[in-house]
Specification:
Helices cover 21% and strands 35% of the residues. It is built from five helices and 18 strands. The protein has helices at residues 139-145, 223-239, 254-261, 265-277, 296-317, and strands at residues 8-17, 21-25, 30-34, 48-55, 61-64, 75-84, 88-92, 98-102, 119-126, 132-136, 157-166, 169-175, 182-188, 201-209, 215-218, 245-246, 281-284, 287-290.
């Protein structure tokens, strides 16, 4: 037998060497288990114990009775405990020490990289010299562990973690709770409200349950609900504008709409269309304006501001 880092092996306790700890053996090789790695009762020489093999902080092979959150070749979701800008992210693996997720495993764009507290689905692997490292788990590994989403999920809100982000959209492993590992989903780019980073926990609505058990997701409300919220937001914005007018309309570029209101151009047009049908606003070229009968609040606010300014000016003269 060989001592394989990342695995649990049954080894015989050969001897105690104070002040270091215990040496265990597989009959060919020995490995040190420090006193701090003992769990439960004091071990006895000659007895066999199940221990996890790893590399210590000085890259020496070592053993522990502690149970890791992940083993060699397995997939697990681990929390980001710390970040090193030039090396990568360090994951909590349940041993009182951390596992490196190298920078090479993370997205090139800095804003898409995980932050402290995010949780990333990874595979425990070995680097070229046998040290344990984390590699990001992708669709081929995660799909084997995912369960089929039930049709009852349609139009419900779920939460999960981002496993990969592309220009076309973001892949999500939905929280499985007591049901298991999770269900696999995808948020198309047009249904994201912003860019999503690896390992970020997001909340999204199930828009479609596919035959293969995967789901399409959206971070937006249903159109009829979103239209009400968006129209209220635009109306409030107009009422704060001088003369109840804004230089945004159906002709405005989508990027400008997204930046100003945080919604897609399609959602903007639906909201404006609702306000126009209700006779609240009109459009003139690139401008959207409140109709006169809906400007009372705006005019009153402006009149109040003028009155305050005049009062302040009078007091200053005195």
């Amino acid at each position: 037998m060989t001592l394989i880092p990342g695995t649990i092996q049954k080894l015989k306790l050969a001897r105690e060497v104070s002040p270091y700890g215990y040496f265990l053996t597989d009959g060919e090789s020995e490995v040190l288990m420090h006193y701090t790695e003992i769990v439960g009762h004091r071990p006895k020489v000659g007895e066999e114990y199940d221990v996890f093999i790893f590399f210590d902080s000085e890259d020496r092979i070592a053993a522990t009775m502690k149970t890791p959150l992940i083993m060699l070749g397995e997939v697990a979701r681990l929390a980001i405990a710390d970040i090193h800008p030039r090396i990568g992210a360090f994951l909590e693996m349940g041993l009182g020490r951390q596992l490196l997720l190298p920078l090479s495993e993370q997205p090139e764009l800095k804003e898409l990289r995980p932050k402290r507290g995010d949780e990333v689905h990874v595979i425990l692997a070995q680097d070229k010299i046998g040290r344990l490292v984390a590699k990001v788990a992708f669709e081929e590994e995660l799909s084997e562990l995912a369960f089929r989403a039930p049709s009852s999920w349609h139009n419900t809100w779920v939460e999960g973690w981002v496993t990969k982000t592309l220009k076309i959209g973001s892949f999500i492993m939905i929280d499985g709770g007591v049901l298991g590992f999770g269900a696999y989903g995808f948020i198309p780019a047009e249904d994201r409200t912003r860019l999503l980073r690896l390992g970020e926990r997001v909340r999204a609505r199930v828009t479609f349950v596919r035959e293969d058990g995967r789901v399409n997701l959206s971070m937006n409300q249903r159109k009829e609900v979103g239209r009400l919220e968006d129209s209220d937001r635009i109306l409030a914005f107009l009422r704060e504008r001088p003369g109840g007018a804004m230089p945004y309309s159906d002709e405005t570029q989508a990027d400008t709409i997204k930046q100003k209101f945080g919604i897609s151009k399609g959602a903007f047009k639906r909201a404006i269309g609702k306000l126009m049908r209700e006779g609240i606003v009109t459009q003139e070229g690139s401008w959207t304006k409140l109709n006169p009968e809906h400007q009372a609040g705006t005019d009153a606010a402006e009149a109040s501001e003028v009155a305050v300014d005049e009062q302040v000016g009078s007091q200053e003269k005195e």
